[in-house]
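Subject: Sanity check before I submit

Could someone independently write out the structure tokens for this chain? I want to compare against mine line by line before I put it in a report. The sequence has 131 residues.
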Amino acid sequence: MTYTWTNDRITRSKTISNNIITRYTDFDYDSQGNVSGTATYFRQQDGTMALSIVVAFLYYLDGNLYKSLHYTPLESGELVLNATRTYEHYLPNNNPFGMVDILPTVRPQKKLPTRYTVQEGGKELTYTFKL
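---
Independent answer below. Compare away.
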């Protein structure tokens, strides 16, 4: 994986195989410096790069991740929401490892969430963590 940096932030990651880019992801940031979105493209058989998934990230005011919204594009270019992941009820404890890995330089969960909800495929699963 190689990274492109702009103004001290990673703005693109690339996966290269045999000197050919097989995948790349563009990263956007909000005014607080949090990664606010990603757009991932994959190489197609004809050599073009096609948008595969878009993820929007929402945060609490303290910088901990609140929700990620996962979209896939239709042929028309319209984005369709496929999945939502929500992280709630953060504890004041520091989080030694996060549940979400966006970039190696980014920690979207500085504290420990106690509740995690996944909505996908018409189903909803909620996980509760206890210490």
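---
OP: Matches mine. For the report I'm noting this point. The chain is about 0% helix and 65% strand.
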